[in-house]
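The material for today's practical consists of a large collection of protein records. An example says more than a description, so a record of this kind follows:
***
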Amino acid sequence: MSPHRVALVGFGLAGKAFHAPLIAATPGLELAAIVTSREEEVRALYPHTAVGRSYAELLADPSIALVVLATPDHLHAEHAVAAIEAGKHLVIDKPLTPALAEARRVAEHARLRGTMLSVFHNRRWDGDFLTLRDLVAKGQMGEIIEYDSHFDRLKPGITHRWKDQRDGGVWQDLGPHLVDQALVLFGRPLAVSADLAVLKPGRPKSEKLAADYACVTLRYPAARVRLHMSQTRADHGLRLSVHGTKASFTKHGLDTQEEQSKAGMVPGDPQWGVDPQPGQLTQAGAAGSSRVEAMRGDYGAYYRGFAAALSDKTPPPVTAEEALAVMEVIEAGLTSHAERREISMTDG
């Protein structure tokens, strides 16, 4: 069977470091075209991939089966609708769109037209998260009571990237990663409570900046999930601190795949996804902890799953419904912060 031809739109961080190398390494997919102004970069890395075509020309090409949108958030809805109208299947880099209502309209349009729509929630395949899921599946954690998930960094300077201009700041940028992982483990929460803030010193009083700090609690009947994002931490190593009825699991260090790709490593390299920092498992009542080697991270699982979905007509590895569930929590967090109250997720 011929590979499914894929067109990537955008070659910034998401396109260059994530989507392009993963698509190129996936059996059953062909990175056929990239729409970007960075033509020389693309030709140096992917000499056999067409580059520089307009989006309209790409959509008119009947050989393109899948369009991957790695463009700024505000372009997602417009580009997605055009692709759906052209009969293309879609992968959209998170979030689906900036606003939940708009995302719901795009997802419904795709459903009515029979287009497969998925959002790239790649951090389901972080090595640390895979390790935790394995511990849970084996029953070593018992019932999880407390779950603290961190995506902290030290970025003290004031920046003006488009990502930093969004109302939710780090909550809308990094929050979808942590929310998706939480929903995979726990499902839909009863309620959401969020505190967002600008904590960086030196901000001009006349300048409005998006939040560089977010601490969000998801309330479950018998568990509390806390999601933490900050750009002001010199010590930002803590990734997971999870406490169950049988054991606690602690993990430091972010998954390696993003930095490996930025450094030029490609999927399939023997070191791809290898995390040198083990976790620590402490059994209830034990005097000390034991070392837990981190599982290999595997973002390629997303595109392998999507290739199988295209061939077998099965659901993609992340469904539109799952992506919308993430956005519902993100929007609840924004509302919680704005209104300074807990937002119920059980209404309606």
Remarks:
- The chain has a mean pLDDT of 94.
- Residues 320-339 form the longest helix (20 residues).
